[in-house]
Structure formats: C-alpha cells, structure tokens
Specification:
Order of helices and strands: HEEHEEEEEEHHEEEEEEEEEEEEEEEH
Number of domains: 2
Largest sheet: 7 strands, antiparallel
Low-confidence stretches: 31-39, 353-359
Helix content: 25-40%
Number of strands: 23
Strand content: 35-45%
CATH superfamily of the largest domain: Efflux pump adaptor protein, beta barrel domain
CATH class of the largest domain: Mainly Beta
Distance between the termini: 50 Å
C-alpha cells in the first residue's frame, strides 16, 4: 500500500506541474499576440497586399502603361577601338642609352602627357673623331666671334672719324666702311646663334656624351613601354606608346543586307556595365569595306571618353535606330527595378478585395520585363507588360522592402 500511494502522489505532482506550464505558455503567447503590431503587408500567392494607409505612408503612386509610336530599333554588339592617328609609337632617333630627363616624370605607364613634354633622353657616346670635329667647330666659331667684334670696332671708329672730318673723305669710302660694319654684325649674330648647339668649355666631363631629348608628339597617355632606364637603344627601336583615348570609335558589325534598314543620321544608344544610364554615340561617316569572308560591314559611332572610363577592345550592347516607326510600351524610369544580375522588373498593381481585414487593400505582383533604351525619361518595354496595365511609378523600392519584410514574417510563422 505504501508503494502505491507514493506512485499516485508522484503522478499527481507531475500532472499539476504540466498544467501550470501550459497555462504560462498560453498566457505568454496571448500577451505576445496582443502586443504584436498589425502586419502592413500580406504575402499571398506571390503577390503582396498593401493597405491604403501604408501606401500613403510610403508615398506609393501608380501610372498606366502607355503605348506610343517610336522609331524602330535593333540590338547589336559592338567593340571600341581607336580612331586612326590617335596612337603613336615613339622610336629612338639615334643609338645610345635611355635615361630619365631632368625635371620630368619620365617613362611611367599611364602618365598623362601633352604635346612637347619630355619623355626620355638618349645619351650618345661620341668617338674620338667626332669629339675632334666638335672641338674644331667650337674653336672656329669662337674665332669668328672675335674677328667680327674686331671688324665692328674698327668700322665704327672709322665712321666716327669720318663724321668729324665731313667732306675730307670720299663718299665711296664711307659706303665701304658701312658695308664692312654690316657684314661684321651679321657674322657675329650667326656665330652667337650657333653657341647653344656646340659643346661647352672646358672640354671635359660630359664631352663624351651628347644628350638627345625625346618629346611627346601628341597629347594622351603612355599606354605601352618598350624600354627601361639605362637600356642600350639602336636608332629606330621603339621607346613607348602614347595614345589618346578621349574619343573612341564604336564599331558595330552587321550583315551587309541589313545596312539599308539602319538610319545612319541618328545616334545609337548603349549602356555601360551594370549601369542603366543610356548613353548616345554619334555616327561617323567614313568609307568602310565589306568583309568578304563574313559578308559584314562595320557601322562606326563616336563615343566620348574624357574620363577614360571605356577601354580599347571593350564590347558594348548597342541599340541601332532603324528607318520607320513601331508601337512600343513606355513606363516611367522610376518604375523599373534591377536586381544584382541586371534583370529588370516592375510591380504591377490590381485592385482586389482581400481577406484578413484588407478589403481596402491593393495587390502588387513583381513581374520581370525586357527593356530596350529610353525615350524622354521613360523606359521602352519590349516584353512583360500590356497596354493600360497599372505599374508602381513612385516608391517601387519601398514596396520591394515591404515585400521582403512580409516574406520574413511568413518564414517566422513557419
């Protein structure tokens, strides 16, 4: 009997503790349910239902999808290249050793240069015969300067004496003195002009080296290096490459039979990377040949590139204008959302009565669309929408955030 009574006591105690725990759990859950804020968005079958009050709070606005007649377009792929004459390979004018010029950035890859900026210097080592010739030329020039000065002094003194004894000297003699003075002055000036190109005295130190400067022939940037400092160069060896990428040519190959359909007077449109910004490329009228192997011809457009954002060889998706018009659907640019992979979508609205007290709500579905360029601030939609459908034009990103919040709430309930 004692054992049975103990067992019954333990069973009654366990039952009492279980009832108490269940009551606390129900009380806590009821309290949390009372304190939980009302859901502003409800996810149903891939749609999100947002109350009118919440729409007003986030500033949501809608707009109708409008059909409009626009110029026909066609997508293609093009490649960027340099216009002719925008890239220069600079070569060594003489044989010697490449060194960095004084007070210059030297040969640095990517360095911006202007026309005439010093790039490098070639030090030419002279032979004994060349040194002898240079010394002789310098000495002869110094003698010419001294002789000219002496003749000028004598002629000026004679003219001064003639002026004091006017009438005592024949006029022919006066003319001879003036001619001698003029010749002396001309010889002196020519000799002075040769000094910068002759070696300097004393004849030692840099006498064995003749520096030859290499300057930039055009404005641009150094895009290639073929030498390093101290390297021996032969005349004609490439030193560096200077290119101007401020304007690039966009070459778009098309089949020659499609060329008559392209409006060559209108600008082409293209996008860069993941950016949705539409840029324009003006047509360039130059003669181009048809490639016999592929039966294609290249259409050329000029792409401004002041910040060097584009690179030579880069491919771009291009929208080419065609002759004629077609009907397209337009939506505001603010209505289009892009995911991490650049896929476009928008929220399509439909007014329907909803359950759970959301009779005044409105459902929104995120739908994938295909876009093709812009027109006057609107995006041209090729697929995914129909005329007169209603899309969210303002606060589409806020609606996406509301949808994500609703998905999280549903996941917590599960």
């Amino acid at each position: 009997m004692g054992l049975e009574q103990s067992i019954w006591k333990w069973l009654l105690l366990v039952a009492a503790l279980g009832s108490a725990a269940a009551g606390c759990r129900e009380s806590r859950e009821g309290k949390e349910a009372d304190e939980a804020p009302p859901a502003s968005a409800i996810a149903q079958d891939g749609k999100i239902v947002l109350s009118r009050d919440r729409q007003t709070a986030i500033g949501l606005q809608t707009a109708s999808v409008r059909p409009k007649e626009i110029q026909s377009r066609r997508s293609a792929v093009g490649w960027l290249g340099l216009p002719p004459g925008r890239e220069v390979v600079i070569r060594a004018p003489v044989a010697g050793f490449a060194v960095k010029p004084a007070d210059s950035g030297g040969l640095t890859l990517g360095r911006a240069v202007r026309r005439g900026d010093p790039l490098a210097q070639v030090n030419v080592f002279l032979s004994p015969q060349e040194i002898s010739q240079l010394v002789q030329a310098k000495e002869d020039n110094d003698i010419l300067i001294e002789q000219s000065l002496a003749t000028m002094q004598i002629s000026e003194a004679q003219l001064e004496a003639v002026a004091n004894a006017r009438g005592a000297v024949a006029g022919v003699r006066i003319d001879q003195i003036k001619e001698s003075l003029a010749r002396s002055r001309a010889a002196y000036q020519q000799a002075k002009d040769k000094i910068p190109f002759l070696i300097r005295e004393p004849y030692e130190g840099d006498l064995l080296v003749k520096p030859v400067a290499i300057a930039a022939p055009a404005e641009g940037r150094i895009t290639g290096l073929q030498v390093t400092e101290g390297q021996l160069l032969q005349a004609g060896d490439p030193v560096c490459t200077v290119a101007d990428w401020s304007t690039l040519w966009l070459r778009v190959p098309i089949f020659e039979g499609d060329e008559p359909d392209i409006d060559r007077a209108a600008a082409a449109q293209f996008t860069h990377g993941t950016s949705s910004e539409i840029r324009l490329a003006e047509p360039v009228t130059v003669p181009v040949e048809t490639r016999a192997a592929t039966r294609t011809v290249e259409l050329i457009y000029a792409v401004p590139n002041p910040g060097w954002d584009f690179r030579v060889g880069q491919s771009l998706t291009v929208t080419l204008p065609l002759h004629g018009a077609e009907e397209a659907l337009l939506v505001p640019r603010s209505a289009v959302l892009y995911d991490d992979f650049g896929v476009a979508s928008c929220y399509v609205a439909s007014a329907e009565g909803k359950e759970k007290g959301e009779a005044d709500g409105e459902s929104f579905t995120r739908r994938r669309i295909e876009c093709e360029g812009t027109l006057h601030g609107n995006v041209i939609v090729r697929r995914g929408l129909k005329a007169d459908e209603v899309v969210v034009s303002v606060a589409a990103e806020q609606l996406s955030a509301e949808s994500s919040r609703s998905d999280l709430m549903v996941g917590d309930d599960d």
